[in-house]
Amino acid sequence: MGCASCKKGPDGKPMGCRSNGNCGSCGCDVMTVFDWLEGVPIPEGQRAFDIVEVRFKRNRKGFYRIGQGRRVQTGDVAVVDAVPGEDMGIVSLTGELVRAQMKAKRVKDTHEIRKVIRKADMNDITAWQASRNREDETLSKARSVVSEHKLDMKLGDVEFQGDGTKCTFYYTAEQRIDFRELVRVLASEFKVRIEMRQIGARQESARLGGIGVCGRELCCSTWLTDFRSVSTGAARYQQLSLNPQKLAGQCGKLKCCLNFELDQYKEAVAKFPPPSTKLMTRKGKAGHFKTDIFGGRMWFQYFDDPGTSPVPIDLKDVRNIMDMNARGEKPDDLQKFAIQEEAAPEDALYGDVVGQDDVNRFDNQGRQKSKGGRGRSNRGKGQSQGASGGQSPSNQSGGGKRRNKRRKGKGPAPKA
């Protein structure tokens, strides 16, 4: 799926701009809604919706009203009204889908909606880019100022207004922070209006972005907008290990994806007996070990013989055994109901041609290397013993010097 500015191939499908998420027309950026109504003519007697969606840095968006006689398209850089001054952003959505987005975000169409002032020219874009280039240096200096004041807060991101007259700092903190002195220092340092905005840990991850353990971009920075509460009960329903390091995301909170399949797991778990189920047999009492929810099987293990492996039993057989226990009957053994797991068939296209599956394939190489190493070590050991059995290195060097003096007196030494 591509935006309107993407070129189309011979088959009519968008080829993509290949800018890796930084599309110049904002059609391929994060939190972008695909305008599937683009190109659809407006019915007669109706006017186009006069509010557009404007995207700013990261995932911050706002709704602004277009004035009469003004026309903007998706991807245009627009100058919008701000308090104080003017801000700049990219138009990310137009038309009737803006009305649907306002309804989803509970934004009412009233007179309080600010207006789009004009389309940005080259002077506006140059000033906007200059303000954006100051953000990294500003964030670094602001963090050093926070450390000097010893405030228990973390600055995550900074955003300059389009005209460069205002700077917003996004921070996270566990407690309430008195940053009045900090604002004075920052205002005198950067000569702009300062605004401090506190955000949560999940909002910080959404602004900064990153890659999750699944190998994909974070859901909160690409498409997830509502952050619902996540409890450890979701992990218990899905039979996950209650390891905080594995259940926590980059924000330090429980992963939002634990809620994605929770409803399906709840429906499936309702068909199974509780984990406290005990099966009575003539061999002994067996307790629940684990459950394969989507496979429809349960594993049971005898209390009196914990060394044996758990027995996999189909859900229907488990209910039959429970009915027998309710009538006072006991089966002989659970092995009668055990599921016989078949071995996976061998792949006819795969063969161990060069012996890469042999467990002992490195043993011969290790022996050859060890033999060569022992030979070298023995030779070195013999040399060291010869040196130690004779004179010391200092004595050998002294004897060599005396022989050289004798040779100099008698003439050149004969060649060997």
Distance between the termini: 85 Å
Beta-strand proportion = 15-25%
Helix and strand composition category: alpha+beta
How confident is the prediction overall: mean pLDDT?
Answer: 81
Specify Rg, calculated over alpha carbons: 37 Å
Helical content, roughly? 25-40%
For the sheet with most strands, the description reads: 5 strands, antiparallel
What are the secondary-structure elements, in order, as H or E? EEEEHEHHEEHEHHHHHEEEEHHH
Residue stretches low in confidence (pLDDT < 50, at least 5 long) are 1-5, 18-27, 383-397
Number of helices: 12
- Side by side, the strands of the main sheet go 2-1-4-3-5
User: How many DSSP E strands?
Assistant: 12
- Write down the overall geometry: elongated
Characterise the protein shown here:
- The chain has 416 residues and is of the alpha+beta class.
- It is 32% helix and 16% strand.
- The protein has helices at residues 96-104, 122-133, 135-149, 180-190, 201-208, 219-222, 232-237, 244-247, 262-269, 315-326, 363-389, 393-410; strands spanning 51-55, 61-65, 77-81, 86-93, 116-119, 154-160, 166-172, 193-198, 278-280, 285-292, 297-302, 311-314.
- The strands form three sheets. It has a five-stranded antiparallel sheet. It has a four-stranded antiparallel sheet with strand order 9-10-11-12, covered by helices on one side.
- α3 runs antiparallel to α4 (180-190).
- 15% of the residues are buried.
- The model is unreliable at 1-5, 18-27 and 383-397 (pLDDT under 50).
